[in-house]
Amino acid sequence: MKKSIFFFAMLFVSLAFFSCDDEDDPIIYIYQETQCADVWGTGIGNTEIEVETAVGDYLTNEGIEYYSIDLEVVNQGQACLACDCLSGREISVEGDSEDQAFMENLGFVVQ
């Protein structure tokens, strides 16, 4: 009898543990910021917080859920003043795989 109870208890714990595995792992999306041509309306003149907030607001307004947004300087950027020149900063968004097509249409790539 004790073996039966132990078996069913272990079975229950195992099923409860593995039932959470159905969720996808988050994906990191990377975007090379432009000097002033990004759809969320920020660019090289904006602070890290301003850019992260603008990107988050834009994604939320589009119905996209995300876990985190970060901005990092990765190089000096392009030596030009046109809006579509790269700023040298990289925006990373941690989000769901179901939003991959939308994110890629914005210019993000999967890390």
What are the defining features of this structure?
single chain, 111 residues, Alpha-Beta Plaits
Description:
This protein is of the alpha+beta class and 111 residues long. The protein has a single domain (24-110), classed as Alpha-Beta Plaits. The chain has helices at residues 2-18, 48-61, 100-106, and strands at 27-34, 66-73, 86-95, 109-110. Strands 2-3-1-4 form a 4-stranded antiparallel β-sheet, with helices on one face. The longest helix is centred in the first third of the chain and has 17 residues, at 2-18. It is globular, with a radius of gyration of 21 Å. The chain starts with a helix and ends with a strand. The relative contact order is 0.23. The model has no long low-confidence stretch (mean pLDDT 87).
Topology (SSEs and partners):
Elements: H1 2-18, E1 27-34, H2 48-61, E2 66-73, E3 86-95, H3 100-106, E4 109-110
Antiparallel strand pairs: 1-3, 1-4, 2-3
